[in-house]
Automatic annotation (TrEMBL):
It is found in: Cell membrane. Signal peptide: none annotated. It comes from Ornithinibacillus sp. 4-3. One of its GO terms (cellular component) is plasma membrane. It is a multi-pass membrane protein. It comes from the Bacteria. This is CidA/LrgA family protein. The keyword Transmembrane helix applies. The chain crosses the membrane at residues 37-57, 69-88, 94-117. Keywords: Cell membrane, Membrane, Transmembrane, Transmembrane helix.
Length: 133
């Protein structure tokens, strides 16, 4: 039973890896300023949305990766620790940029959510189905 689970898990990891590699190759081939892994994620999203890839086909591997996502940030954090002089010289401007961009993202997300919620409410009052919004 464990062997079967391991093979399924490896197959799901292979699907995710393959989409990542396709994204990397597309980014290099098209010579666009979007990272290949982002293109791979967009490709995965489109394939999930269209039903070409079923969620069950990648569920175990993606859940595992998401559960252990924090470990992928450890090398970055350790690398940042070596940049102490930069943070001493540019710490305040960096903090303003980080907090400003975070605030902008939060405000934009809230505004879009409120817009969509109000459109859904109006559509519901008119008897229009959700997928037409």
């Amino acid at each position: 039973m464990k062997l079967k689970y391991a093979l399924i898990f490896l197959g799901q990891l292979f699907i995710l890896w393959l989409l990542n590699e396709i994204g990397m190759k597309l980014a290099a081939w098209l010579d666009i300023p979007i990272p290949g892994n982002v293109i791979g994620m967009i490709l995965l999203f489109i394939l999930l949305l269209t039903g070409v890839i079923k969620l069950e086909w990648i569920n175990e591997a993606s859940s595992f990766l998401l559960k252990h996502l924090v470990f992928f940030f450890l090398p970055i954090t350790v690398g940042i620790m070596t940049l102490g002089p930069i943070f001493l010289n540019y710490g305040i401007p960096l903090a303003f940029v980080l907090f400003g961009s975070a605030a902008f993202g939060i405000i934009l997300t809230g505004a879009v959510s409120q817009l969509l919620a109000s459109r859904r409410k109006v559509a519901k009052e008119r008897g229009i189905r959700d997928h037409n919004i």
